[in-house]
Design a protein that fits this description.
heterodimer; A: about 425 residues; alpha/beta; Rossmann fold; 2 domains; 7-stranded mixed beta sheet; 12 helices; disordered N terminus; B: about 90 residues; alpha+beta; two-stranded antiparallel ribbon; 2 helices
Chain lengths: ~425, ~90
């Protein structure tokens, strides 16, 4: 069980999301990100967990198998022989109407690649925690976003968290978001490998019945079967239906368009889950899609995902004291991309740096940069946007490194010129 | 695609088919379909022999050739082989 700690006053509000007075009593625990994920899954009344361990996700599976062994959950726990099988088992379990969870990282996620598309295309709302880690070669077990960024187009929703508390909160929200009838898509909750997955933090947890009530029963969209019946979309001997058929030139395209609509609906669903969760927990993360910090009057800003935002917010506080109009936008939801929110939040900023913990060799910058710059292109007076690739293979980025980006942005904002678009931060050159 | 096909808003999610496999004809795959000019056709049966799908049938009792569009894939071999050029491949809307 988690180590209990006396309730302490919270001094790092900026790094931990906005806290309101919670209406429901919570327990303060100390858990690392992985344990927080496992604990959240324990509370969400999950029917099936099929998983295969891989660093830095291992603790999630380890911890959850303890809950199963101790009889603390009723979950069917399937130890599979590979991640490909784990995702296949999740897909099949979810198709029967079971609430399903798995976790992976790096090479494990890459091995799931094929089944990720089948899962999203089959509209099965599997929830997966990804403890983000670099991909080989060279072999590296540390944190960066190469694994889930490579699954950008797999049709999964993607949320990236800033700390262990948000990992706990987001897993609970993820079931609600993914299982909403209009969404019915699987979701990845990304937590930075080691930085979040293995770092012991204070995590306030809700009681199990409060979580169960929030997540609710799984909902199903209705479908028309070959028997001419309109029934809930799940494998059911009473209402047989064909799942996973082929759809060729005449229909495949239409089904792909439906997935886009699921993504569009999730924009609303994520915001609703965020605000509804705030009511019971006192915690919210921006509007659920973006988490801006001191951005209202900012002239320069950094866009990032994941744990880096915590450090950036501290730097912004320092820069603000020095009179610099700096801000941070943490992109919490990467899929669906909150295009309108990004435009509104960044339209008055003069220079923006987008930080990427992954790269697209041979491309112009990395995924988050590509997406943010693409979204802002249609604003008449869009800011100058540059890319900083950093932290690959878990390389640490010091506050001094990050502060240098703001200094670069000040220069760009003043001159109106960016000498180059893509920078490598903390690289020996 | 022909207009009888439904839009993405009208169909169930995830490819759940509204009819059993008996209801899905492989002839749905075709883009072009063969159109026979009865004046040029000499009923030589070359097309019947060359059709790789057996979708062109000779009905001796009626003395007629029949195209079964439920199975015709629109490959155009019949049009290519027809000695009198009685068969042309056309889009359904033509």
């Amino acid at each position: 069980m988690c180590q209990r700690m006396p309730h302490e006053s919270n001094n790092d509000e900026a790094a931990r999301g906005i806290r309101m007075t919670p209406k429901i009593k919570q327990e303060t625990t100390a858990m690392n990100g992985d344990e927080a994920v496992a604990f959240a899954v324990k509370q969400c009344d999950v029917d099936v967990v099929a998983a295969y361990p891989i660093t830095p996700q291992t603790i999630i599976v380890e911890k959850f198998s303890e809950y199963v062994a101790n009889g603390e959950v009723q979950t069917e726990f399937i130890c599979t022989e590979s991640e490909h099988s784990a995702m296949t088992a999740c897909l099949a379990a979810s198709a029967t109407g079971a609430r399903t969870f798995t976790a992976s990282a790096s090479a494990g996620l890459a091995l799931m690649h094929e089944m990720l598309f089948v899962t999203s295309g089959s509209r099965t709302p599997v929830v997966m925690a990804v403890a983000n880690r670099a991909l080989s070669a060279p072999l590296n077990i540390h944190g960066d976003h190469s694994d889930s960024m490579a699954e950008r187009d797999s049709g999964w929703l993607q949320i990236y968290v800033e700390n262990a508390q948000e990992a706990y909160d987001s897993i609970i929200q993820a079931f609600k978001i993914a299982e909403e009838v209009g969404v019915s898509l699987p979701i990845i909750v990304g937590l930075d490998g080691f930085t979040i997955s293995h770092t012991l933090e204070r995590v306030d947890v809700l009681s199990e019945d409060v979580v169960k009530k929030f997540v609710g029963e799984r909902q199903f969209p209705m479908v028309l079967t070959h028997e001419g019946k309109t029934v809930p979309f799940k494998l059911d001997p009473e209402n047989p239906m064909t799942m996973g058929p082929n759809a060729l030139q005449n229909y495949y395209f239409e089904f792909k368009r439906q997935q886009v609509e699921g993504m569009n609906n999730a924009l609303k669903g994520i915001q609703e889950a965020n605000s509804e969760y705030a009511k019971i927990s006192g915690r919210s993360y921006g509007n659920g899609l973006i988490d801006p910090y001191k951005l209202d009057d900012a002239e320069i800003a950094i866009v990032c995902i994941g744990s880096t935002a915590g450090t950036l917010k501290v730097i912004v506080d320092q820069l603000r004291e020095e009179g610099m109009k700096a801000g941070v936008l943490r992109l919490r939801t990467f899929r669906p991309l909150p295009v309108e929110e990004l435009r509104n939040a960044l339209k008055n900023v003069k220079a923006v740096a987008v930080m990427d913990k992954s790269m697209s060799p041979g491309g112009l910058g990395a995924p988050v940069f590509n997406e943010v710059r693409n979204a802002l292109y249609d604003i008449k007076q869009h800011p100058i946007i540059v890319n900083y690739i950093f932290g690959l293979g878990g390389r640490d980025s010091s506050p001094r490194d990050l502060r240098r980006i703001f200094e670069d942005l000040t220069k760009i904002a003043k001159t109106g010129v960016a000498e180059k678009q893509v920078h490598y931060l903390g690289l020996r050159e | 695609m022909s207009s009888k096909e439904k839009t993405w808003k009208e169909i169930s999610i995830a490819g759940v088919p509204p009819k059993s496999s008996i209801g899905f004809m492989t002839g749905d795959w075709k883009t072009y379909m063969p159109v026979r000019d009865l004046e040029k056709c000499t009923t030589c049966l070359t097309c019947v022999m060359f059709c790789p799908e057996g979708a062109i049938k000779w009905r001796p009792e009626m003395g007629k050739i029949e195209f079964d569009f439920s199975f015709c894939k629109g490959c155009g071999i019949c049009a290519n082989e027809c000695p009198t050029k009685a068969i042309t491949m056309k889009l359904p809307e033509e």
